[in-house]
Amino acid sequence: MNSIFNEAVCKNRDLILKTLDYIWTNPETGYREIKTSKHMADTFKKLGYELHLAENIPGFYTVLDTGRPGPEILILGELDSLICGEHPDADPETGAVHCCGHAAQCAALVGVAAALKEPGVLEALCGRIRLCAVPAEELIEIEYRTQLKKEGIINYLEGKPEFLSRGYFDGVDIAFMVHTSGGTSFSCELGAVGAISKKITYKGVSAHAGGAPWEGRNALYAASLGLSAINAIRETFKEDDMIRVHPVITNGGGAVNAIPDKVVLESYIRGKTFDGIKAANERVNRALIGAALSLGVNIDIEDIPAFAPLINDPNMIDVFEDAAACIPGIPCEKREVFWSASTDMGDLSCIMPVIHPYAPGSSGTIHGIDYKIADPDLACVASAKLQLNMLYLLLKDGAERANRIIADFKPRFNSKEEYLAYIDGFNASGDRITYSGNERADIKL
User: Do 365 and 225 fall into the same domain?
Assistant: First the structure.
């Protein structure tokens, strides 16, 4: 392996770690990453890149052309943080904190960008390299993002399908992104589950809780029955579908002396396949609607496409393992399992070969109060080396390996338009029960 790639990253270690420090100490959640995106953009501009800034939302991409014919490879870094107010490094006003590893991703992406500007690096490559700082991977603050969607600012709740719909990935042939994880090994699974997002509003009738409760219809009791009904159907989910349903109550009533007339829940329906997600969602909707019927309240269920199931391309897994072997002292682990969490890299995997592996260096519980980047050299510097070596393996020798991967790939959808039209079909909203005067109720699943 040509050692110039590892050396090119090492030359920019200080810039990489300074980027990590800034992003970690300035956390912002999805579609709010104003400072984060600006800092990353300013860093890229100082490195000599011309940027295509996302219109009216954070994020950007840049394309580096080697001047030699070949495919285009997309490398991504995610800008957004989570919310975990009890984390010691959380923003005191917003509760935002990078307990997800995205700060390290941004730092590694800067490392790749800087290394590509070092003398001699591009000479071994062909084709084009697209570097992208993308917003909004963590699916949180659904109400805020839903409002952005209603205002026409975004079409999708997550950044990668949003960028895809805007044409920011047009011309890309292969994509990869390295996440951060614990331990001391590079690692990769076969893929991860997808999900749809749900906002559920039970609509009752308020009344005095002590003086005349019989005049009300308790939305909180209906919601409680709905949660119990979901638990009652969990054993009907097939193990192979890897279904996960985890609702929370975000609005449970306003005053203890009033019958709650509005209760709001949010949930995901996760699953390994689109068919499994659809089937589970129908059962969950039936359970939720049945609870509403039992107390004579109504229910608005808003379903929004979230993440597609991720399938890591087998040939890209081979590239990952070969690239990891070029980083001395860090073992590589391939896990023959699907992860039961989700990522919007799954959306890209529906139309192009992708991989979403992991670099070590964090400690604590991911998304938890003790999460931190314990070893920045592993999480950021080694990650950048891994990505640069993957790029080299794909684009050396006239991109022979990348071209073979592209030729072997069998997409689940023939185009981005076909894919986006498919997931748009998951959108649904409105009251699910129509009550008529003769005590009849018609439901819509």
Answer: no
Can you give the CATH number for the domain in which 206 is found? 3.30.70.360
pLDDT tens sequence across 133-188: 999 999 999 889 989 999 999 999 999 999 999 999 999 999 999 999 998 999 99
Contact 107, 50 (CB under 8 A): no
Is residue 133 within 8 A of residue 61, CB to CB? The reply is yes
Please tell me the distance from the alpha carbon of residue 173 to that of residue 189, in angstroms, as a whole number: 21
Q: Hey, what are 146's tokens?
A: 């839903």
Q: What share of the chain is helix, strand, coil (3-state, %, to 5)?
A: 40, 20, 40
Using alpha carbons, list the distances in angstroms from residue 428 to 295, 391, 445: 23, 40, 10
How far apart CA 357 and CA 192 sit, in angstroms, is 11
**Tell me, what's the pLDDT at 254?**
86
Q: How big is the chain by its Cα radius of gyration, in Å?
A: 24
| C-alpha triplet 427, 433, 435: angle, nearest 5° | 155
Strands (E), 255-334: 262-271, 298-307, 310-311, 332-334
Task: Measure the CA–CA gap between 169 and 349, rounded to whole angstroms.
Answer: 13
Number of domains in the chain: 2
Rounded distance between C-alpha atoms, residue 157 and residue 143, angstroms: 10
**What CA–CA distance (Å, rounded) separates 66 from 399?**
12
| pTM for this predicted structure | 0.94
The pLDDT of residue 2 is 63
Identify whether residues 45 and 98 lie together within a single domain: yes
Structural domain that includes position 105: 4-191+309-412
Task: Indicate the residue type of 200.
Answer: I
